[in-house]
Amino acid sequence: MEDCIFCKIINGDIPSYKVYEDEVVYAFLDISQATPGHTLVVPKHHVKDIFAYDADLAAQVFARLPKIARAIKASNPKIVGMNILNNNGKAAYQSVFHSHIHLLPRYADDKFSMTFIDNQEAYDEAKYQAVCDAIVAQLANENN
Question: Is 98 a catalytic residue?
């Protein structure tokens, strides 16, 4: 896609700090470096978000994550964990609409944080089951 910043990075039109590349993905340091080593893994084929993946692309892209994650972790003995994040859609904080996966190394003293809100008090068995049934029905439709 011509206006896509990640496509331009993949094509070499915009410089990047490439850490890995093969026929399927291009991985490079995120310019923000939320923590040292923060890396983006992007499919070379332009795809907007996870909703546009097919099973083959998902298998190929996600199969490469452990190798890249292990290399990041091994690159710095201070790394004690890693978040793997994928934002899909503006409401989920996706800012570049070319699918990308954040590999975010974690350090004992980093200032990065995420908040997961606990809404379990708003759910009873019927509400959990209704949400579950709606998802299961969609999966059954997708398998047909």
Answer: no
The one catalytic residue among 38, 45, 100, 102: 100
Distance CA 127, CA 107 (A): 38
- Given a contact cutoff of 8 angstroms between Cβ atoms, the answer to whether 105 and 76 are in contact is yes
pLDDT digits (tens, 9 = 90+) for 65-76: 999 999 999 999
Give the closest residue to 65 by CA, choosing from 54, 55, 73, 76: 73
Residue 96: count other Cβ atoms within 10 Å of its Cβ.
14
Ordered by where they begin, the domains of the chain are 5-112 (3.30.428.10)
User: Checking DSSP bridges between strand 79-85 and strand 39-43, what pairing results, if any?
Assistant: unpaired
pLDDT per position as a tens digit, 69-114: 999 999 999 999 999 999 999 999 999 999 999 999 999 999 999 9
Q: What pTM value is reported for the model?
A: 0.92
